[in-house]
Amino acid sequence: SAVALLVLAALATIVGLAATLGLLLHVPASNNRTGFLCDDGVTCVPASHVCNRIRDCRNGEDEQEKLCDDLPSSLPGYLVFHCSNPLYWIYADQRCNGMNDCGDCSDEMESLAACPPCGSEWWSCTPVLYEYCTCIPKRLCRDSIQHCASWSDEYICKP
User: Where is the LDLRAD1-like C-terminal domain positioned along the sequence (predicted)?
Assistant: First the structure.
């Protein structure tokens, strides 16, 4: 008990000292990677900002030739989502964003996408016309433009 308290106090001191000296890096868990971690170990760039010709990392490592030379195969797999059509891919952070980024809605509807159901700010209808897949933003309800094949966005949905 007394020894355990001493060990815990020593560990807390070591962790505090390491954090103060900047020795601890904020590396995302391997099963929860959502972006590109810059060399500083702190800055995380959204997947869709990698290889976009804009340096988001201090040293520009998000735009390095070895990373951007042969897209998408040169990118880490967790930054890429492969559409059902093997010729198309999108950045992983574009999956489940409500938009038809793949062109066939595979980034919003297929089991590989594993998207949650529409949130409270969305109206669910299938099929959706134009750029959406299964949901439209409620701000488009009753705007005198058909977004749902059933017209439910104009007659049932309330913004």
Answer: 116-155
Angle among Cα 98, 100, 102 to the nearest 5 degrees reads: 130
Instruction: Extract the tokens encoding 63.
Output: 């735009």
Give residue 50's domain range.
Answer: 25-95
Contacts of 71 (CB under 8 A, 6+ apart): 51
Provide the domain count of the chain: 1
pTM of this structure: 0.70
**pLDDT, tens only, 81-117:** 999 999 999 999 999 999 999 999 999 988 888 999 8
Q: Amino acid letter at 76?
A: P
Neighbours of 111 (CB within 10 A): 7
